[in-house]
Amino acid sequence: MIRRLSAVVSDEEYRRIQKLSNAGAAKSVADLVRQAVRRYAEELGSSKLVTFRNISLSQARKEVEAYLKRKAGIVWPDEMAEELGIDYRLVLQVVQELTNEGKLEVMERKPQVIVK
């Protein structure tokens, strides 16, 4: 079975794609797009997929605290969530609790945490 996909791109992006196609990178613009989609899907398929576990807030807090004890300096909540397999929103909730308790310092305007 063949499926049709469509995408909207800027004029500049289209010109770049057309230029690549004309230079012989593919038989046509459509073929170049198919190649790009195929390559991107293969790259994603070989990367690790993150699966979040369904855990309680108290369990998430224990895991976040243990994680922070192993790390020093600046910690990014999204990386913490990915490494622990915990939903990002749950990690942020734990970070907020720890910040309110004075155990963490959150840098303004940047989603990072400094371990005290």
Task: Give a written overview of the molecule.
The chain is mostly helical and 116 residues long. The protein has helices spanning 11-25, 29-46, 57-70, 77-84, 88-100; strands at 74-75, 104-106, 113-115. The chain has a 3-stranded antiparallel sheet. A hairpin with a 6-residue loop joins strand 2 and strand 3 (113-115).
Task: Quickly give the structural class.
Answer: mainly alpha
Q: Please tell me the overall pLDDT.
A: 85
CATH architecture name of the largest domain: Orthogonal Bundle
Q: Strand tally, please?
A: 3
- The H-level CATH homologous superfamily of the largest domain, spelled out, is Winged helix-like DNA-binding domain superfamily/Winged helix DNA-binding domain
Q: How would the global form be characterised?
A: elongated
Order of helices and strands: HHHEHHEE
What's this entry about, in short?
By secondary structure, this protein is mainly α. It has helices at residues 11-25, 29-46, 57-70, 77-84, 88-100, and strands spanning 74-75, 104-106, 113-115.
Index terms:
3-stranded antiparallel β-sheet, Arc Repressor Mutant, subunit A, single chain, 116 residues, 5 helices, elongated
